[in-house]
Amino acid sequence: GDGGSESSPEDDGRSEIERFIEDNYPQFHSLLSKNPTIWQEASEASGGYTFFAPNAQAFEELGDKKQRQIEDPRNLETAQKLGLYHVVSVEPVSSMRLRTEDWTKPRPKDGSPQPLTIGGIVTLGGEVPVGRKKSGGFLGFGAKEDGSIVVGPEAAIVQSNNVGSSIVHEV
């Protein structure tokens, strides 16, 4: 105690991971906090959680109407589920793990990138596919995989941070 302004992390009752997400991804923090036990569970988990944190731009792209629907108390259950789809509790999923290509499979003839070893992740909300972003094509036909990894239909990883034993992927 030298009387410095340094406060201990326990002071405000928030875990390191909750503070990180609240400071960097406030909208995602407010969405996840609709599940009241999530922060405690994440901080008590021995193996660490993996969070896919949508950034401000991702929320902006939802548009006002969808954002209002998420905040509407009548949609609480849906919002809770939506939050849980962004959290993996079983084991930390590194960005390397999401990008690992499966070279036991034959090379795609159409020149698209090698398939991935991971086909999906099981989040607290349910299973979410992991694949490659497709571009071009028309109405879903003839689209080619362009190589960037996407989680779910279109969440691309912008950057990843290790926070304690957890991993936060910005999407």
Automatic annotation (TrEMBL):
Residue intervals of the FAS1 domain: 25-101
Highest taxon of source: Eukaryota
A Pfam family reported for this protein in Swiss-Prot or TrEMBL: Fasciclin
Protein name from the UniProt record: FAS1 domain-containing protein
Species, as recorded: Pseudictyota dubia
